[in-house]
Every structure is written in structure tokens, then in C-alpha cells.
Amino acid sequence: MNDRIAPVQSIIPLIGIVGWSGSGKTTLLERLLPLLREAGERCAVIKHAHHRFDIDQPGKDSYRLRSAGAVPMLVASGRRYAMMVETPGREEPDLVELVEQVSNLAPTLILVEGFKHAPLAKLEVHRPVLGKPLIATSDPWVIAVATPEPLALPAGVDNLQLDRPGELVDWLLGWCRGWPSHDAPRLPVEHQR
Questions:
Q1: What is the DSSP string of the chain?
Q2: What is the pLDDT of residues 26-79, one digit of tens each?
Q3: Which one, out of 25, 66, 144, 184, has a CA that is 20 to 30 A from the CA of 111?
Q4: pLDDT digit string (tens) for 2-32?
Q5: From CA 120, how far away is CA 111, in angstroms rounded?
Q6: Distance CA 74, CA 76 (A)
């Protein structure tokens, strides 16, 4: 992990939700989003997909127009809109570009699910039962770990209870109040003395 890469810039508080497959990242977000909304936060979520996906269906007008070359293709109704942009030649999505896109919608908090290797502050979801190593031990961008049981963590990493969503929301709101001071990785262990 290269901790010298410039962080993803945002004037809006931005935090990644990371963890190994099966750790419960999406489930956690499902529990936190209504509580954050009740607390007055307007949250944008950027989710990384590891596979090819499509949100419009073959035969539908939006699919036909996108296939014909519309870039971007925006479909809208009175209740929602969706914009589809083809990104040929890319192996991975451009997180900086995605943050810029959602920032234009004026959220008060941007939650990024996945993008495990991106240089941004992260909350790790960790379940020891999966037998996977803690990401926090090798990634200085992890500032907190939500887990079902307390763990020994690197210095500067908060230990949060995964089954207490209200406490997680309180932690997130406190973290947001300190924004943008959270735009750098933790110091490596040898520099924390």
C-alpha cells in the first residue's frame, strides 16, 4: 500500500466503508442511512461493483439510446433520475470523477462502499469469523473498525461495536464535524512515538 498517494479531495466529508467480501458493508449502510437521515444528514453513496452491470434493460428506450451512442444517457421521471455513462477502456472506475459527480448534488456526507485501496479515510467492517486479516493493520487510511467484538487495533484506530448502529452514527457525526482534518493517513507505527 502506497500511503504517499494524494488523498481523494472533497469539500464534503468523505469516508470509505471497506471490508472483505461477506463482512456486511452493504448491510451496515442499510442500517446507518436511515439514522443519518434522521440526524439531518443528506448522504450520497458511491458503490464499487467488481463486475459488469447494467441498470437499464435491453429493449427499453434508455438502453436503445445508450447503445446507439448517447453519452451520457440520463433517464428521468418525477420521482428519480439515473445517468448512465459508458467508460470504455477502463478497468476500474475513477473515484475522483464519481465524487465530483455526487458533490454536484450537495450531499452533506459521501459514503464510499468498496474502493478498498483508495486514499481516503475509511471505516473497516471486520468479522473475525471470516478468517481474513484486518485491513487496518496494513492500510493507514483506516481510522476505525466496526466489529462484533473488541479487537487489538493499531494506534489511532477507533474500535466500534458493529451491532450498535446508533453509536456508529454518533461516531460518524463527530468525525464529520472534524472535516477536513481527516484527509491524511495515520502515521506509520514507527512515527507514532
A1: --TTSPPPP-SS-EEEEE--TTS-HHHHHHHHHHHHHHTT--EEEEE--SS---SS-TTSHHHHHHHHT-SSEEEE-SS-EEEE---TT-SS--HHHHHHHHHTT--SEEEEES-TTSSS-EEEE--GGG-PPPGGGT-TTEEEEEESS-----TT-EEEETT-HHHHHHHHHHHHHTTTTT-SPPPPGGG--
A2: 999 999 999 999 999 999 999 987 666 667 778 888 888 888 888 888 888 899
A3: 66
A4: 444 677 888 999 999 999 999 999 999 999 9
A5: 11
A6: 6
| C-alpha torsion sign, points 81, 87, 91, 97 | negative
Determine the Cα–Cα distance for residues 93 and 114; give it in Å rounded to an integer.
Answer: 11
pTM over 0.85: yes
Q: How far is CA 83 from CA 27, 30, 89, 92, in A?
A: 25, 23, 19, 18
Residue 159 contacts residue 153 (beta carbons within 8 Å): yes
Please confirm whether the linkage preceding 180 is cis (ω < 30° from 0).
yes
Region of 46 (left: φ > 0; alpha: ψ -120 to 50; beta: rest) is: beta
